[in-house]
Amino acid sequence: MIKTGIVGGGSIVANEIMKIISIHPEAELIYVTSETSIGKPVSTVHNNLQGIYDDLLFSKYSADEISGTCDIVFICKSHGESSSYVKDLFDSDCKIIDMGGDFRLKDVSIFNFWYHGAKHACPEILNKAVYGLPELYKEKIKKTNLLANPGCYATSIILALAPLLKDNLINPNEIIICSSSGISGAGREPKPGFNMFMDVYRNVKPYKLGVHPHIGEIEQELKNFSVIVSVSTQISEEVILKCYENFYSECGFIQILKDRIPDVKDILGTNMCSINAKIDKHSSKLIIFSAIDNLIKGAAGQGVQNMNLMFGLPDTAGLEYLKK
After folding, report:
1. Which helix (H) or strand (E) holds 255?
2. Residue ranges per structural domain of the chain
3. Which of 113, 156, 230, 324 is the most interior residue, by most CB within 10 Å?
4. C-alpha count within 13 angstroms, C-beta hemisphere, residue 282
5. Whole-angstrom Cα distance, residue 256 to residue 124?
6. Residue 141 pLDDT > 80, yes or no?
């Protein structure tokens, strides 16, 4: 069994990871930290886990205990925080998945720009981390001990654009992205203006316009697939969809739709990414639709998918129930 730990066990993402690990055939949760709930049973903080983790207590963070008992640890801390934990654990035999943003960007100056001056504890190992999009970097993920789990916006956007950029079917200078996320993306702690009921009820509002940190990782990763080419010939929807089907032919969590636009309700609670594309004949513009559950494929599900690859398991292990 893969002995699994979580740092930052009180978070929404940690809760989702715990649910998946509880039914995983090859993994067992043995260690969870929380700064505010030390000594309490996990199920008293996450009530939906009652009867599952009643005997597992939140621990005070200890690098020695994690490195001595865990095969892998998920770090569920905010940007600017997780790098200090990675620095503590990097030289141990424990594999690390950072669920935050500290290791997604490879250049510390770009990190400082998008994360607005957050201090990085170990910029010297940024290039040691593998960006964890399994559909793009499966072989690299299998070999790494430090993985940066992508952001939710970045996951849905990169998966939608990478195949078309690779085949030079779209012009990267003419991409416009409009993306929305559930309020769980703002975390568990109250953030006025972002995840408070009175701010979001019956409302959709712009979020971090032009300064969202996921922009940095989207730009960084799509450069790996982009060739600056202006496409002058008219392409059909059939060509676009065939490109997606070829690119994702061996990816079990990508669903290419042909007869309908992705619906949030269809992917809710799953580890799937649903994609379709339509050409607006009036404007001759290609409109791409991509939908994920921001807590599953955009966070916890993708994290476990990456863990599976890091331990030589099928990437679907423990995630079969999250497919539709």
Report:
1. strand 254-256
2. 2-149+296-319, 153-292
3. 156
4. 0
5. 39
6. yes
Q: Which residues contact 320 (CB under 8 A, 6 or more apart)?
A: none
Partnered with residue 280 across adjacent β-strands are: 285
pLDDT at residue 83 greater than cutoff 80: yes
b/e for 235-253, b at 16 or more Cβ within 10 A? Answer: eeeeebbebbeebbeebbb
Predicted local distance difference test score (pLDDT) of residue 232? 45
How would residue 48 be classed by pLDDT, with cut points 50, 70 and 90?
Answer: very high
d(CA 222, CA 52): 40
| One-letter identity of residue 134 | P
What is the pTM assigned to this prediction? 0.90
The encoded tokens of residue 267 equal 């992917």
Class of domain 153-292: alpha beta
Across residues 47-58, what is the average pLDDT? Answer: 96
> Residues 120-130: what's their mean pLDDT?
95
Q: What is the mean pLDDT of residues 273-283?
A: 89
The DSSP output letter for 298 is: I
Q: Does the active-site annotation cover 152?
A: yes
pLDDT bucket at 73, cuts 50 / 70 / 90: very high
Whole-angstrom distance, CA of residue 141 vs CA of residue 95: 11
pLDDT tens digits, 220-262: 998 888 665 555 457 889 999 999 999 999 999 999 999 899 9
Alpha carbon of residue 88 to chain centroid? 23
Give the span between the Cα atoms of 240 and 285, in whole angstroms: 13
Q: Which of 70, 94, 152, 273 is catalytic?
A: 152
**210, exposed or middle or buried, with CB in 10 Å at 0-12, 13-18, 19+?**
exposed
CATH level 3 topology of 2-149+296-319 = Rossmann fold (3.40.50)
Dihedral over alpha carbons 6, 8, 10, 11 (to 10 degrees)? -100
